[in-house]
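User
New here, help please:
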Amino acid sequence: MTDAEGVRLQKVLANAGVASRRVCEQLIVEGRVRVNGVVVTELGSRIDPAVDRVDVDGTAVQLDTTKRYVMLNKPTGVVSSMKDEKGRADLRRFTKDWDERLYNVGRLDAETSGLLVLTNDGELAHVLAHPSFGVTKVYIAKVRGRVTPQTIARLTKGVELDDGPIAADKARLLDTSGETSLVELTLHSGRNRIVRRMMAEVGHPVLELVRRQFGPLHLGTLPAGRARELTTVERGALLTLSRSADGAPEHPTSPENP
């Protein structure tokens, strides 16, 4: 590409919502912007937004405006499908505000609520859903019985299930009240209904389950049944994660269903 082709880098950054044109120029001069992994400090530099990859301070910048990234707080009673063959409540009602055809990344079973990502970015969806990339998910489970520190230790040490051993990356007891307990589990496994099976194995069946975090995304105060587009910062975090996984397996395994 010649100097006369492409779009000026500072204009691309400003259009992507990084900052004002003047601030973007300063970022370039300070050596904080990379194009295809190479630091660019010349203000006259031009790029092709359709091909080149840009990051600022190591965080990817979304240049493809056709890609959409949505966070949903899936309520209970809804299956993780865009069209359920059995006629159950599905995800279509939450995507009507977007023209793009969105798909869910992974699954939450019908009785599990919480953070679900909807996107039309297949590459990103692959990275988030495939267990080989080690993307962590954080769940809070209300379980039957009074969980002890020994049980928490067992969850992180590992339990044996029908399809093999599994250990939580992290586990902690949040609260015990009466005959129920709140447990926070961090996992990167993509195995089916894994949280429910782990807790049942240690003698504390799940009564309620919510996913609070998916990779760098946090559910925050988003109400159940509501969806919103990711912020510029959140999109950057996801794209950075996706780009760092280049060269991974081509086909994901079955999406998880905690």
Remarks:
- The radius of gyration is 21 Å.
- The chain has six helices and 17 strands.
